[in-house]
Amino acid sequence: MSYQFLQLEQHDLVAYVWLNRPELHNAFNTTVIEELHTCFKQLAIRDDIRIVVLAGRGKSFSAGADLNWMKQAGQACAEENEADALKLAQMLEALATLKQPTIARVHGIAFGGGMGLASACDICIASTDAKFATSEVRLGLAPSTISPYVIRAIGARQASRYFLTAERITAHAAKQIGLAHEIADAEDLDKKVQEIIDALLLGGPHAQAASKQLIQMVSNQSMDNQLLRQTAHHIAQVRQGSEAKEGLTAFLSKQAPAWTSNSNNNN
Question: How many other CB atoms sit within 10 Å of the CB of residue 22?
């Protein structure tokens, strides 16, 4: 199958899924989400694929949501808005529940949904130049659909900081908080990814699939349809609000949102 914004490559037993919208730092829109979901569903039924590596073409892994798309979604009616958000939630679930071990190969920025993708993968290998962020609050939004995976990766306590401050997280800090398992210099990133691939290939594929199921079973909260709908409903409500519209408009027009001016006036 051919894709507009993805490149799928197979090297022996490893599938490489490349986000391929480099001019926009691999930002999501409806097509990107649908293509990723389709790709993950197809990989899930392939026995000739042992490992899936998710990576990005160009300067970045993924900048998260295309803000023009998010702005349009926020202006849609409530039902359309929630259905749109549910597609993103379902795509992330498809990645998180793949039977194969998954590796996020992160370089450049992984903001918002990009950080969600990295968190939804089983293993995250980051370049030392990588920067992560749950940047949604600075746009008047919330990291709703990515929250189950990010909180699973870094814990509620770290999420309490980064969900609220939207600070950029360096690669070294990402490793400290559990978001990145390994970091490597840019020129050694693929070598480090290959080391993890080699280790994974020593395990039994059915045993690895069973181990992934075990982790999901014993975790604090299962990634079920109710949770998907809860997170989709959450972001659908938030992005229809006046603050989200102000934040997205300000960002796209390269201006500061109103709440930053109010904060400065109070200082």
Answer: 15
Distance from C-alpha of 251 to C-alpha of 261, rounded to nearest angstrom: 14
Concatenated DSSP letters of 126-146: EETT-EEE--GGGGT---TTT
The angle subtended at Cα 31 by Cα 162 and Cα 4, nearest 5°, is: 115
Cα→Cα distances 235→95, 144, 167, 230, Å = 20, 5, 20, 9
Distance between CA atoms of residues 116 and 108, nearest Å: 15
As given in the structure block, the two tokens for residue 103 are 């590796």
Count of helices and strands (H, E) across the chain = 11, 9
pTM above 0.85, yes or no: yes
pLDDT tens digits in sequence order for the chain, 267 residues long: 789 999 999 999 999 999 999 999 999 999 999 999 999 999 999 999 999 999 999 999 999 988 888 777 778 788 888 888 899 999 999 999 999 999 999 999 999 999 999 999 999 999 999 999 999 999 999 999 999 999 999 999 999 999 999 999 999 999 999 999 999 999 999 999 999 999 999 999 999 999 999 888 777 666 678 888 888 888 888 888 888 888 888 888 999 888 776 545 554
Cα angle vertex 194, ends 118, 107, to 5°?
40
CA distance 154 to 141: 20
- Is the Cα torsion angle 74, 78, 80, 85 positive or negative in sign? positive
